[in-house]
Amino acid sequence: MTEPPVKVEVEAPGDPRQPGPWAVHARRLHDLGRTVVVRRAHAGRELTGRAGTPGTPGTPGTPDTTDDSHGLLVDDALLGRWPLYGRVIAVTRSSDQASELVRALTGLGASTLVVPTIVVSDIDFVVPADLAEYAWIIFTSPNGVERFFSIGLEGQGRDARALAGCRIAVIGPGTARALARHGVGADLVPERFVAEALLAAFPPAQSAGTPGPTGPTGPTGAGGPEDPTDPADTADTAGPGDTADPGAPRVLIARALVARDVLPEGLARLGYSVEVLPVYQTTAARPSPEAVEALSSTGAVDAVTFTSASTVTGWCQVVATALGGSLPSPHPPIVTIGPITSTAARHAGLTVAVEADPHTIPGVVAAAVGLLGPRARPLR
Q: What is the mean pLDDT of the chain?
């Protein structure tokens, strides 16, 4: 079967004074876009070639080498700058949270296929009037922070002063940064961005005012825009609700409607009276026709990234439905953001190729480079 031609409309990107080569976007007539590296001499031209038809090295206006598998023009010297050149990576985050990961991947030369598998939506809730009576308030994700303040407190005519006297614990630096945007600092950020790590750092109820060590990232350290182990994104069943002991220090957990039981149950074992406040929910999204078409093409996607367990669940639901009841086969390699997400993927029958460490968006990007970069394996 003869491959359709690859056409590249070359435009000078960014600062025209920037020396070539440049990375530009090409669209195969039958497939996804690809990134192509060209030299300055190509600016303003359209290049056409066929797969397996290499360019002529040394010819004016022609790059030095080609990728014979795609018929795309490649400058090998730039693979160090764009280690994900020629790769297509699926991003499964919700549409309003995909941009950070997309920017990071495309900045390294990848093309991205955004396939939102979840939608984060508001629900009705009421923030307790007596917040000062809680020893701790826990936020498990940026989604929880934003809705607690914007819908909960502001909807009642209150602000961050309502948290005065409470200690605040969060899972992950992304959640801590979301909290800081509202003028509140986190008292406890565990070193690992999972509920289990928060429990390990949490003080027993008898010494509720003395938390364990804050993680090295601190409240404003580096990390992804969404914490990978948000219990809202890691569960199949609803949490246990309130575990009330009238004489115990009270803890309020602001989280999703559906969440793992690990955190409230663990805090109850530490002697706290735990109250769960659902502040948002996640539901399945619907992929675009373009995404479905791409996913149905064998080999069109080099890897799929999952940043929470709910993205795994959503992927298995919406993509399988869109493809007629089954996932892509063979399934592209999977990159996960952390152990909870990896467990969800394995429970769904998927094989995890690599798990990010640290469990952040930059960690996911680094894992993708390790899996797909030029030193890992040749372009398909």
A: 74
